Q: What sequence folds into this?
């Protein structure tokens, strides 16, 4: 069989947002998936999990037809029904909820299963057309955004392809070898062609750090202390760009005096780094004009995550690195797109939404907590697309208690029988990206990627668009988008946004949306009203939970407190071949990731009587989980690393790691502190029999 190469784009929640080339073996079958070589950021590179996407799209466990629940909620017993019965049931449940409690009692819920304009955000039309509750999507980047907004303003920065011109690259609080592989390609090229240095700041020796010239392993939640001490060194040694500070920032004598106290000795006590490590990094950074910081979002998943991002984002303002090619910083592109989504997302009807609920507080919301419900009615009906909330949200026991409520109707639209799908009253089979059309914002670069469909419909699967359209029509709307196919909506959106013809863009696979040099480097001003970078942020303008946040750039000591009853700190970062809970079903990924593992420092292991390969129990007030121990000095003493959000069946009690994660919103605008959990640990009596 000769394979035809078809261009499309990756829909997964990943900063790489790759333009792809797929081997189409037949209208229903693919072979390998590769990166498009012409999009500069993708540059022909693709991650291993998507390289073998055939394993996911042709997986034997894919859901194939609509079903209704016949067992208990959470049990996973279903019976086949047809699409009309399924959609009629959901529409009737939405109407019944509205009749009893008003439209705000219906909550369409989504997350990053696909990031498409059509297939992800199209569900928001339900809230907008019918006045249902809306959703504030906080689970992923809100703490990062808040910290960046505090200092820089808008959500943009220097395009990572400019790394080709950098002399010093700092990867701060992210693990691109796992989560953003294309970035590594650009970093390695700069090292080869210019001798650029790579510094990695993390809380354990990640695979990214293994590739670095300098690796700094600090205590979790202490990045702001490192950043402030670096600024102290740079200012006191006279290597700051004083002219830049005066012209482009709100820096003044008060900030200077404040930072003057943040000595390397002060930061060493907080971070666990040595004074020499801090000083040497500060000097290297301070004396390199073309220094580029790529911020991950991992270091913002702590209670002080937004203040950490704010402090670290101040570094290029102190050195003036923003002014140079290959200099500056970046975490994500969110404000550069200028897409007209009036039609595709019913933006014209936003005014109908009277209650916005916090995605990350789903547990509190479904359990009727009044502040989480904002004083409004309880949630009585939901449609969930693109989200495995029962596994990935914080305080997952609370989420499941909520999903189990007999007086809550839940429709889940999914690819697989996930933890969340098991709670569905109606379970619908979803198309995968290869079977639909969409466009994606490359949040880790600056191209809008175009993802036309590659394969025919699989079994009875329907796209997110088709499900929402089918429901909205039954509920009585005649919005223009409801009669349009995904291809027509993509075309109409590109046209309304004045980006050209779909047929022509399809060939190339993307549209360049890079801001000009001056805008990306903020030479035309930072994105605040005064055009300046802010060392003194206005946290109150960013979110409601701003009380007590530092008035001037600082380390904020509010992380989960370790103590005698919970002496260790748990960090739960992404593994290489699982993407949140996606790909946990594919054999290639399962083979690489093996089993849930807690990496424990030798000194901690000894103190707790744990040996390599033992089963250990990790717990706190929310619950406890059991996994295998690996003894390793990868992190500081006192820090336990457990990569991955593993499915329930990998744990003895059938519930994953997020049982332990507290759902208190991260200041100032919400989000979850996934890497900020104080725990106790004990060796289980049973040795590792199954291994
Ligand atoms: N393979 C794979 N790829 C993914 C994902 C996945 O699960 N697997 N998830 C996708 C999603 S949804 C997102 S949002 C992105 C996230 O991509 P990144 O920006 O890379 O962010 P994270 O991967 O969350 O960051 C993880 C790193 O942050 C470190 N970290 C945790 N706490 C701290 C701290 O206090 N300080 C410092 N300096 N470092 C800390 C962790 O140890 C880990 O190495 O990746 C996406 N890509
Ligand atoms: N402990 C811990 N927890 C975390 C994190 C962490 O680092 N540590 N990371 C957090 C982060 S950054 C994020 S973004 C969240 C992610 O949380 P989620 O966005 O919920 O991510 P996934 O677990 O991958 O679940 C996405 C689901 O959507 C489904 N899906 C994919 N495409 C489609 C589609 O086209 N249609 C429909 N209907 N369904 C589809 C997939 O099959 C999958 O089950 O998890 C968070 N949870
Ligand atoms: S998951 Fe990320 S790296 Fe892998 S293909 Fe998709 S966008 Fe690219
Ligand atoms: Mo995320």
A:
């Amino acid at each position: 069989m000769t394979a035809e190469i078809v261009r499309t784009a990756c829909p997964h929640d990943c900063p790489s947002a790759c333009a792809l080339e797929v081997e189409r073996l037949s209208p229903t079958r693919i072979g390998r998936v590769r990166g498009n070589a012409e999009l500069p950021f993708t540059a022909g590179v693709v991650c291993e999990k998507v390289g073998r996407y055939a394993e996911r799209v042709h997986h034997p466990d894919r859901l194939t037809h609509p079903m209704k629940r016949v067992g208990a909620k959470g049990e996973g017993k279903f019976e086949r029904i047809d699409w009309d019965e399924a959609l009629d049931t959901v529409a009737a449940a939405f109407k019944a909820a509205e009749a009893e409690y008003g439209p705000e009692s219906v909550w369409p819920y989504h997350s990053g299963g696909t990031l498409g304009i059509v297939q992800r955000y199209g569900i928001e039309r339900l809230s907008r057309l019918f006045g249902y509750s809306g959703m504030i999507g906080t689970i992923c980047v809100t703490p990062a955004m808040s910290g960046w907004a505090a200092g820089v303003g808008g959500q943009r920065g220097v395009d990572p392809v400019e790394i080709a011109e950098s002399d010093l690259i700092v990867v701060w609080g992210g693990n691109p070898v796992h989560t953003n592989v294309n970035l590594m390609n650009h970093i390695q090229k700069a090292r080869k062609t210019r001798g650029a240095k790579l510094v990695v700041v993390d809380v354990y020796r990640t695979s990214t750090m293994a590739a670095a010239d300098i690796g700094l392993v600090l205590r979790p939640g202490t990045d702001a202390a490192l950043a402030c001490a670096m600024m102290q060194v740079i200012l006191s040694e006279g290597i700051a760009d004083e002219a830049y500070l005066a012209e482009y920032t709100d820096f003044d004598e008060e900030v200077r005096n404040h930072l003057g106290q943040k000595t390397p000795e002060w930061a060493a006590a907080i971070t666990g780094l040595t004074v020499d490590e801090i000083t040497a990094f500060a000097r290297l950074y301070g004396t390199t004009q073309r220094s580029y910081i790529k911020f991950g979002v991992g270091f913002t998943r702590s209670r002080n995550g937004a203040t950490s991002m704010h402090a670290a984002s101040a570094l290029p303002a102190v050195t003036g690195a923003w002014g140079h090619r290959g200099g500056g910083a970046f975490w994500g592109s969110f404000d550069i797109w200028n897409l007209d989504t009036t039609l595709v997302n019913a933006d014209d009807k936003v005014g109908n939404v009277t209650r916005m609920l916090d995605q990350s507080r789903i547990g509190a919301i479904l359990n009727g907590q009044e502040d989480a419900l904002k004083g409004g009615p309880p949630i009585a009906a939901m449609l969930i697309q693109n989200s495995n909330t029962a596994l990935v949200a914080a305080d997952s026991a609370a989420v499941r208690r909520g999903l189990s409520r007999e007086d809550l109707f839940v429709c889940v639209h999914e690819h697989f029988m996930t933890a969340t799908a098991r709670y569905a009253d109606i379970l619908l089979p979803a198309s995968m990206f290869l079977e639909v059309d969409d466009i994606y914002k490359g949040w880790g670069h600056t191209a809008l990627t175009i993802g036309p469909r590659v394969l025919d419909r699989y079994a009875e699967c329907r796209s997110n668009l088709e499900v929402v359209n089918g429901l909205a029509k039954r509920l009585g709307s005649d919005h223009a988008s409801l009669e349009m196919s995904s291809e027509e909506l993509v075309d109409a959106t590109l046209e309304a946004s004045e980006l050209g013809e779909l047929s022509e863009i399809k060939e190339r696979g993307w549209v360049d949306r890079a801001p000009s040099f001056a805008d990306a480097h903020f030479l035309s001003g930072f994105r605040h009203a005064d055009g300046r970078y802010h060392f003194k942020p206005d946290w109150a303008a960013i979110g409601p939970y701003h009380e007590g946040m530092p008035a001037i750039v600082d380390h904020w000591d509010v992380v989960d407190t370790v103590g005698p009853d919970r002496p260790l700190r748990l960090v739960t970062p992404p593994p290489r071949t699982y993407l949140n809970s996606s790909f946990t079903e594919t054999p290639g990924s399962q083979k690489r990731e093996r089993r849930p593992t807690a990496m424990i420092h030798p000194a901690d292991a000894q103190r707790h009587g744990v040996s390599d390969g033992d089963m250990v129990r990790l717990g706190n007030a929310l619950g406890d989980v059991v996994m295998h121990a690996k003894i390793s000095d990868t992190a500081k003493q006192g820090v336990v690393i457990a990569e991955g959000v593993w499915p329930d069946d990998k744990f003895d009690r059938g519930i994953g790691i997020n049982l332990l994660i507290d759902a208190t919103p991260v200041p100032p605008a919400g989000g979850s502190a996934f890497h900020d959990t104080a725990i106790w640990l004990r060796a289980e009596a049973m040795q590792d029999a199954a291994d």
Q: What stands out?
A: The CA atoms of residues 326 and 418 lie 43 Å apart. The chain is about 30% helix and 20% strand. The chain has four domains: 4-57, 67-127+341-449+458-512, 157-331, 568-687.
